[in-house]
Amino acid sequence: METPKRGLAIHFIDGSKMHIEFPVQAPNETAVLLRLEEILKQRQILAEVDGAVVLIPFDNIKYMQVYPSSPRLPRYAILGAAIRD
Description:
Mean pLDDT: 92
Number of helices: 1
Number of strands: 5
Strand content: 35-45%
Oligomer: single chain
């Protein structure tokens, strides 16, 4: 059985992009929410990628897109939104 994948598309201030794919990191929705809150608190992404540690400070990030969306998000999240040009 294949492990379900999750992904993160990071859009940097300079216009470049990075896509990271990873397996499920938390056993349940509550744990996902706690990890999200910790990442926001730390203001950086720290990932083990292909045997190396990658540290991405939020200061260099324009926005991030995490998929799939967690069914449980912080209370301040806007739900059901769409991006329009």
